[in-house]
Design a protein that fits this description.
Blueprint lengths: L1 E3 L4 H10 L4 E5 L8 H6 L6 E2 L15 H7 L13 E4 L2 E2 L2 E4 L8 H16 L6 H5 L3 H8 L5 H24 L4 H19 L1 H6 L5 H12 L15 H6 L1 H11 L6
Parallel strand pairs: 2-6
Antiparallel strand pairs: 1-2, 3-5, 4-6
Length: 259
């Protein structure tokens, strides 16, 4: 299932600075969440496993099953929305997992995604939005109910947490040079046109608000300009107040949300 990935010199340097000792592994199969049997195989490659678990009261009664499983004591690695690279600190050392869906992507972009994961590993932040929202997650769900179903609520919350991380990581990315910096800029340029069109895409029903939020919040790590209502997430106050700010944002925009 897993094999050690050879890293470029630039990515090695990022690992040395932000996540010393972290393992970067290629996965034999694509996944949203690593199947339990395969997740346990990580135990053969790391020094220890310490599965995360979270209080049941952090979950709304209608939370998606995948989130219920993540909150349990089961070892859950990877979640919907992770994209081509996932990471976990439930292992010692931490692990970054590269999925086969990356095959065919430009090497420079793949290097950026891996480097981004290593930077996130090095932040003193939860590895998933549930750890970020904590007891505020039911309040977030209440704010967007009934406009969004539980899956849409989950999708929007993940996007909000991506924005929170992006506010921190973009300062690091902006200090890079060489291919990683160029890949960061290029990915941001590719997003900018789509982000500018988000209000129209929402108004016409081409995209739901959670789908639009994924694009907008992804642009934050590239220092992109955001349209309303997502621009309110690109704020230092978000870093200061965290999950409670995201809940207040959801309450303010609830009337515009349509699943």
């Amino acid at each position: 299932m897993f094999s050690t990935r050879e890293l470029s010199a630039a990515v090695e340097a990022v690992r040395d600075e932000h996540a010393p000792g972290a393992l970067v592994l290629d996965c034999a199969h694509d996944f949203e969440t690593v199947p339990p049997a395969q997740a346990e195989e990580l135990g053969l490659l790391v020094d220890s496993l310490d599965p995360a678990s979270y209080p049941a009261e952090w979950l709304p009664a209608d939370a998606p099953e995948v989130l219920v499983t993540y909150a349990s004591s089961d070892l859950t690695v990877g979640m919907p929305g992770d994209g081509g690279v996932a990471w976990t600190r439930q292992t010692e050392p931490p692990v970054v997992l590269c999925k086969p869906r990356l095959d065919g992507s430009p090497d420079s972009f793949v290097d950026f995604l891996i480097a981004e994961a290593l930077v996130e590993v090095g932040l003193d932040e939860p590895e998933h939005m549930l750890g970020f929202f904590g007891a505020e997650y039911p309040n977030f769900a209440d704010a967007v109910r009934p406009s969004l179903d539980p899956v849409g609520t989950y999708q929007l919350a993940v996007a909000c947490y991506d924005a929170y991380l992006g506010l921190q990581t973009r300062e690091i990315f902006a200090e890079w040079d060489g291919p990683l910096f160029e890949a960061w800029l290029d990915a941001g340029d590719r997003l900018s046109g789509r982000v500018e069109e988000l209000p129209t895409a929402i108004a016409t029903g081409e995209l739901s608000v959670p789908e639009a939020a994924e694009l907008a919040c992804n642009a934050i790590k590239h220092a992109g300009e955001l349209p309303a209502p997502f621009d309110a997430l690109d704020a230092s106050a978000y870093l200061d107040h965290g999950a409670s700010y995201a809940v207040e944002w959801a309450e303010r925009v609830a009337e515009t949300i349509s699943g």
